Amino acid sequence: xxxxxxxxxxxxxxxxxxxxxxxxxxxxxxxxxxxxxxxxxxxxxxxxxxxxxxxxxxxxxxxxxxxxxxxxxxxxxxxxxxxxxxxxxxxxxxxxxxxxxx
Amino acid sequence: xxxxxxxxxxxxxxxxxxxxxxxxxxxxxxxxxxxxxxxxxxxxxxxxxxxxxxxxxxxxxxxxxxxxxxxxxxxxxxxxxxxxxxxxxxxxxxxxxxxxxxxxxxxxxxxxxxxxxxxxxxxxxxxxxxxxxxxxxxxxxxxxxxxxxxxxxxxxxxxxxxxxxxxxxxxxxxxxxxxxxxxxxxxxxxxxxxxxxxxxxxxxxxxxxxxxxxxxxxxxxxxxxxxxxxxxxxxxxxxxxxxxxxxxxxxxxxxxxxxxxxxxxxxxxxxxxxxxxxxxxxxxxxxxxxxxxxxxxxxxxxxxxxxxxxxxxxxxxxxxxxxxxxxxxxxxxxxxxxxxxxxxxxxxxxxxxxxxxxxxxxxxxxxxxxxxxxxxxxxxxxxxxxxxxxxxxxxxxxxxxxxxxxxxxxxxxxxxxxxxxxxxxxxxxxxxxxxxxxxx
Lengths: 102, 440
Hints:
Strand order of the largest sheet of chain B: 3-2-4-5-6
Shape of chain A: elongated
Helix content of chain B: 10-25%
Strand content of chain B: 35-45%
Largest interface: A-B, 48 and 40 residues
Oligomer: heterodimer
């Protein structure tokens, strides 16, 4: 399961662009979504929670959430082993964050 | 066989406990902050001459300014208009996603410039998401051809706001001091420019020394300090008439002028017999009110955006530190607590942070919260000072004096991450930049 989670993360990574600015590295958005057996999205990704909001990154919080949803939509269809479909059908509480590169 | 068995066992386990079949994981954006944005030349349906150049020329220049604005924010990596595909007028509203998907572009800004029968021009501005193949935002500006730069700034502002979540800031102006001459005989004049360093105008002759300008919130006038002879006095310079008047009649030196956010009140400092205090006076005139009364130097008040508090600098503790008080002078509290001295505090128009000059060896620009927490230094040069906030409170301009006694100074800009620093071009040397609000 961990390996599948990492594989999904690898496929989202090129699509995931956190907004930039002060304190954005503290924001964490969590989403859940369902997948069809061909790796396409079954319905829209669902927003579960967000943490790390400060007065300085308030403006980015909404964009952070929107971009996380966009990243999942853009990364689909996911290329995952169909024989393990039962394992990856439901992606839960997936975490989106940013590390500031200096 | 073993693999088959493993899979069956796993499948059984999954069937037996459905809760297990939920993938968790995480993804971290470790890229640099730059989002790739392609900006082709804005096409025109028919190349038409205007007083500011033909519509085809304007289409290229507008795309160039949008690219330059977005680049300066540090959040984007604009590509074009040079060296990328040129688009047709029809394509402006129907992007060739097949082409752009094959490039590094993640977002695409397209538009057009069209001459209207009444002499105005229409500038269209569209933002597209290349990966999702969909329109993200659109705007149109009907303007006099001479205002074409503003249309470019407004288009860049709409893209910046949409993609960053922040308020706009490109379509704004800067008041600053234009300087020339040797260090001991500097000529310092009041000057203004666009936020990107275009459209410079020098407003005073340089016979008196101008310092610390501040645009009024309505952009109609500039408050500044003028040394006529040896005495510093505060004037309001009216931009339409080019006349100026004294803010307060006094034989004492006055300095460090600031507007209140509503433009109705002016804060300033006045020195009487070695004791400097902060005063407020209505713009329309009237009796100044003294807000501080301790011994020592209280100077440089800056209002919070709601006008209820004032941040200022005081050496009452023995060294320059930052204090916050109510706008009526009550409840004065020190907020700076790190080592070293702190000067020229400025409250962000967004209210969340205070910028200042930190003096500890060299001069650096920093920020802290209004309660003094989260101190962060953004620059590290020999002498950086005098921070001024962009209207959205996310970018700071300041001036940098070069080491070595030439007295040469230049205007710089840095964002709140401290990563994106750049020089703003000025006609002569520049100092004391003061950012005005977003243009109406």
